[in-house]
Amino acid sequence: MKKIIYISFFSFFVLMPFLYFTYSPFTAFLNTYIYFSSCDAPLNYRIGFIDSRFNIAQDEFLQDIKDGEAIWENINAKNMFDYDAQGELSFNLKYDNRQSLNTQIGELEGKLDNGKSILESNIEDYENLVDQFNQRRKNSNEKISYWNSQGGASPEEFDKLVKEQQEIRLEEQKLNEMSGNLNLSTTHYNTQVGELNATVDSFKKELSLRPEEGLYDGKEQEITIYITSSKNELIHTLAHEMGHALGIKHMSNSKSIMFPFSTQEITASSEDEEALRIVCQKQNKFKVFAVNLYSRFQDIVQSFPTDNSRAGVKEAAKVIKVIDGDTVMVLMNNKEEVVRLIGIDTPEVLDERKPVQCFGKQASDKAKEVLNGKIIELEDDSTQSNRDEYGRLLRYILLNNLNFNKLMIDGGFAREYTFKNNFYKHQSEFTKAEKKARESKIGLWSKCSK
Question: Any idea what the CATH number is for the domain that residue 367 is in?
């Protein structure tokens, strides 16, 4: 019996590899079970909640979604999304303060355009009447001068001149009243302009606090859109969040669908196309399982805090200066602190011992663009020291629940950095983000040789 078992095992482990590498039909058959692509089957989606204040019907929203999915499907001529009333992925339109402000801006701009047209027409009418009045008064004064030079006018002519002067004075009063009304109208118009500017300022503040117009929640399988400024911008945002649903990360190219901020672009860039190719490439199931298992093991190990007094502590702070791409100065608890970002390293721009490194300025400028003057959260990591050898706080920066450290890696502005092999909480996530950015050749990975 043992002999039969040994022979069976030997035949299996010798014959299977032999057939796999020598017999192509068997190779093709086995590959269908070993290899898979995340793009093999389309993602089924449904329409969830639509706030009526958007004034978008379900059919119209569904068409916008289809326009967004077409951006990805046209790249590889493959069906990647399917509408299904029972689909797992839900699309929602949630009316928030940004959309309310955006609607107010549209209404105020409409009022201003109409008010400006009326005001300009009234001013033009007033100026024409003033010109006519001045000409009439000039003519009347010339008549008076003429009769005075003749030694006086006849009684009949004198009565005409008196009546004419009375009419001119009445007309002058009416023009003065009209001028006062125009001043009031101008003041009202300027007030509306001020109201619009204040609303625009509030809108910009809201956008700075919540830069993304949509959000993909992988855990809940939801894509929620919070604001729509135009048709193209809505389609862009939908396609952007669909990209996240496919597993594609942010890109630094402003022409890309996966650029972190909303634009009017509705055509995929070459970076978008390459990222989709990478996401859709065939993968070995056993290798993916092993990598995920190891990643999960790392997460479990790193979840055990080394200092419970600092585990997951978050503190609010205001960024008062961006020193470079991975170091900022903040004001917290009425005290200035220098913060070194955990897990990333950006090219040097300030180290006197070194020249400005490739992509250093771009990384520094990006940090300034996103962080300068912003209210942020600083998150501690109990696996790391509280401060480094230079006395800087070691933290993650959270902006509207987005990890800025990872955002810098996603955009190719920073490399993943593990200090002295001291594993940190987000190491696995950051390492994957760097690999994705490097393979997509974005940011420093496309510009710098090292």
Answer: 2.40.50.90
Give the pLDDT of residue 351: 57
Task: Look at residue 381 and tell me whether its pLDDT is greater than 80.
Answer: yes
Catalytic positions, written as ranges: 340, 348, 392
What is the arithmetic mean of pLDDT over 304-329? Answer: 77
Q: Are 65 and 91 in contact (CB under 8 A)?
A: yes
| Edge-to-edge strand list for the sheet holding 89-93 | 81-83, 43-50, 89-93, 222-225, 214-217
My answer on whether 347 and 210 are in the same domain is no
**223-to-68, 216, 306, 340 alpha-carbon distances in Å:** 12, 4, 36, 33
What are the tokens at 168? 């001119």
| pLDDT band of 348, cuts 50, 70, 90 | confident
pLDDT at 69: 95
> Both 126 and 187 in a single domain?
yes
Q: At what angle do helices 97-149 and 155-209 cross, to 10 degrees?
A: 160
**Is there a single domain that holds both residue 321 and residue 277?**
no
Range of the domain at 317: 309-447
Claim: this prediction has a pTM higher than 0.85: no
Listed range (1-5, 211-215, 268-272, 377-381) with the worst mean pLDDT: 1-5
Same-domain status, 31 and 44: no
Residues 333, 425 within the same domain: yes
Q: What number is the average pLDDT over the span 163-169? A: 82
In a domain, 48, yes or no: yes
Residues 84 and 230 in one domain: yes
**What CATH number corresponds to the domain at position 46?**
3.40.390.10
Give the amino acid at 403: N
